[in-house]
Amino acid sequence: MNREDAFKLLQEHVKTDRLLRHSFAVEGAMIAYAKKLGENEDRWGLLGLLHDIDYEKFPEEHPDFAPKLLSETDLGDDFINSILSHGTNSPYPRDSKERQCLHAVDEMASFIIAVALMRPTRFEGLKAKSVKKKMKDKRFAAAVDREELLTSVESLGTEFNEHIDIIVNGLIEEEKMINADGYTLLG
Ligand SMILES: [Fe+2]
Ligand SMILES: [Fe+2]
């Protein structure tokens, strides 16, 4: 499945801007990590783009409905199991880099966008220091579990500051790509 078809499928199941933006953000972060680790950028990008495909229609069951929504595709069991592995208390182990990475960038990519929106220069010059400061502010993006942000990057084995740099760079690239289609991460 190519990116164009994946995006069409995503649009069939995701109508809200908020979730679309999150899907783009995780796509950008996953592509940046794939580049960094020499992994398959297309596959990792699609994992990011599609990981929450069932969330809007089946928020309670998420991500357990993803296999049904992806069943007509050629993405394969291993890909689909990687999507399943990002769920809370998932029976699918995060036993590969792509699974650890998906988990580590999922909440963080959107948290970084929330930080960028508070800054006049947005992503430009956004460093780990600003992210850490906002992580300490409990009222900021209060729903985001700080502990999870930290433990997921520990499992991945990337140093925290580098983790932020990789994701910020990925978001900058993603923003350029989706701007061409009339979307933005910073809406
Ligand atoms: Fe999710
Ligand atoms: Fe997500």
Automatic annotation (TrEMBL):
<dbReference type="InterPro" id="IPR006674">
    <property type="entry name" value="HD_domain"/>
</dbReference>
<feature type="domain" description="HD">
    <location>
        <begin position="20"/>
        <end position="107"/>
    </location>
</feature>
<dbReference type="Pfam" id="PF01966">
    <property type="entry name" value="HD"/>
</dbReference>
<protein>
    <submittedName>
        <fullName>HDIG domain-containing protein</fullName>
    </submittedName>
</protein>
